[in-house]
Amino acid sequence: MELYLIRHGIAEEHQPGLKDEERQLTPEGREKTEKIAQRLVKLSFNFDLILTSPLVRAYQTAEILIAAGLSSQLETSDHLSFDGNIQNWWQEWLKPRKYPQKTKLALVGHEPSLSHWAEILLWGEAKESLILKKAGMMGIKLPDDGSPLGRSQMFWLTQPKYLL
Length: 164
What we know:
The chain is of the alpha/beta class. It is 29% helix and 18% strand. A six-stranded mixed sheet has the order 3-2-4-1-5-6, with helices on both faces. Helix 2 (56-67) links the parallel strand 2 (49-52) and strand 3 (74-76). The longest helix has 16 residues, at 27-42. The two termini are 27 Å apart.
């Protein structure tokens, strides 16, 4: 299975009276995310499913990916919110093998959670070494059997500016 960890685009700043989970993409964030999505289409990326955090800015990012034609399937998961735990997600989504081994699954979420998840998949622990930029993407190949934690391989990491 291939996992693509995608950080949401540029969002509104924190401000009094605006709950963090309601922050939306800015016009610039929307425009850049749309351009990146189009570039991913040109690079022949596609996902069997896009799984997103329910927070507005992540969901909007996922909708842009869907609109670009990168997938036709979109679902939300609380596991991709700030306090999401990769072990809990793995138990629910991956361990029961709901998806075939060749599935390409995009996860749209937040920092530092996505980078921590990547580090746990790659090295078995979060080391605070990776940073995923806004609208950035990281590709990780999971092993065909057993736990992916500490046994996965990164095959894609690029800053969004290289896709614009």
